[in-house]
Design a protein that fits this description.
mainly alpha, 12 helices, 6 strands, flat
């Protein structure tokens, strides 16, 4: 390799080093990896994660070796602007030859010694990364999809069971009651298995694919959902014949109960906001309307007396007003908790800028430390004045921007200093 070949190879390897490092850090911070690391796994997932965890450890070992080899090659290249034959020969061997030796790869079960060229080492890291990412993404996809869907189906199952019991559809007395018991047991077992062994519920596509290619296996969930839907239709048929009015009254009570709970939550949240947030206008929360409860009691009395001609229009009006009441309660809760959301956003913004400052090596800047501490004290004190806290965060942002500007200018200046004079020219 001549001098230009060496420089081009070093530039390419540096770009690959940066890409690999970025990928490894993203894998390290991946939510799926963290969940796998802390979960009580079993079955197929336990085996795959043990191998994957070892592979990730090996990846970092390879990366450290790659970084060291690249740094050593750079050091040789920087000895002289015009490297001699000896230096070029050594650089050729380091950049193209199998000169990276890794003893034991840092993990149990690995070969005693592995020898790679830099290109081979990059290919090996890419291979391990793809395999590791495939496991992490697959587990995360299953955990993101199936448990939430199972929980929603279980909530629907609970509502259906309550409704079924109210019309006499019970285990041992009606086939649909027995079906509900079987679905309940299946959902509980399915959720437990999904949490402990998510990869057992992953379907990979045939042939090669990108890491994470595939989909969660929802066959058992779909079967349970279809069974519950069949039971629900049966219960609704019973309700239509026997207790249509009672069904509507139960639904009304549920809506009003949710509205009452939401208002109670809003009142509790208002006390918290008033205690934690200063100089903020927090709207008052009204109590539940007693008129709706009185009308609901009147509707139940109409049903007991079989006064259907009075009950039907009253139920129609109550259903509309109950929906409006629930919406009003939700809007009240949203309005009351808005200051807490603003404070959380300011906290997140402050920490994000601090992380950026630390990443760029300015964590010890006295002005930045002072302004960060001031903003943090305001945001983590009670009561917190949001307007003052926001100003403190903005001051920290501005100070950060001012501190970063010279560093970025120096970086551009260094880049210009190292730019060739022209095609085929030398470095300045």
């Amino acid at each position: 390799m001549d001098r230009d070949d060496v420089d081009r190879a070093l530039a390419r390897l540096a770009a690959e080093h940066e890409a690999v490092e970025t990928s490894l850090l993203a894998l390290q911070d991946h939510a799926g990896r963290r969940l796998l690391e802390g979960a009580a796994l079993s079955g197929f997932t336990k085996e795959r994660w043990a191998a994957t965890d070892a592979a990730i450890t090996r990846l970092w070992t390879y990366f450290d070796a790659y970084s060291g080899a690249l740094a050593a090659a750079r050091e040789i290249r920087e000895r002289s602007r015009w490297p001699g034959v000896k230096d070029l020969s050594e650089l050729t061997e380091r950049l193209r030859g199998p000169g990276v030796v890794i003893a034991g790869a840092g993990v149990e079960g690995a070969a005693l010694t592995e020898r790679f060229s830099l290109a081979e080492l990059v290919a090996r890291m890419n291979e391990l990364y793809a395999a590791s990412l495939d496991v992490v993404v697959a587990a995360d996809a299953v955990w993101s999809a199936l448990p939430a869907r199972i929980d929603l189906l279980a909530a629907e199952l609970h509502r259906t069971r309550s409704l079924a019991h109210s019309v006499g559809v019970r285990p041992g007395e009606h086939p649909s009651g027995d079906d509900l018991e079987a679905i309940t047991a299946e959902l509980a077992q399915l959720r437990e298995e999904v949490i402990a062994d998510p990869l057992a519920f992953w379907v990979s596509p045939a042939g090669s694919s990108a890491p994470g290619g595939g989909r969660p296996d929802t066959e058992r969930y779909d079967r349970a959902a279809r069974a519950l839907e069949d039971v629900r239709r049966e219960v609704e048929a019973v309700l239509t014949v026997r207790q249509d009015a009672e069904q509507r009254l139960i639904a009304l009570r549920d809506v009003l109960s949710r509205a009452d709970r939401t208002l109670a939550e809003a009142r509790t949240a208002r006390v918290e906001v008033l205690a934690k947030i200063a100089a903020s206008e927090v709207p008052a929360v009204s109590g539940p309307p007693t008129a709706l409860q009185e009308q609901l009691a009147a509707a139940a009395e109409y049903r007991r007396r079989s006064q259907w001609h009075r009950l039907s229009p009253l139920l129609d009006a109550l259903e509309d007003r109950a929906a409006e009441e629930l919406e009003r309660a939700r809007a009240s809760l949203t309005a009351v908790t808005a200051p807490l959301a603003v404070r959380a956003e300011l906290r997140g913004r402050l920490d994000a800028y601090r992380a950026k400052v630390a990443r760029l090596g300015l964590a010890e800047d006295p002005l930045l430390i002072e302004r960060y501490d001031a903003a943090r004290r305001m945001l983590w004190s009670a009561p917190c004045d949001l307007r003052v806290a926001e100003e403190a965060v903005l001051r920290y942002q501005r100070a950060t921007a001012e501190a970063l500007a010279p560093a970025q200018s120096d970086t551009r200046s260094d880049s210009a200093h190292q730019r060739p004079d022209g095609p085929g020219g030398e470095h300045a």
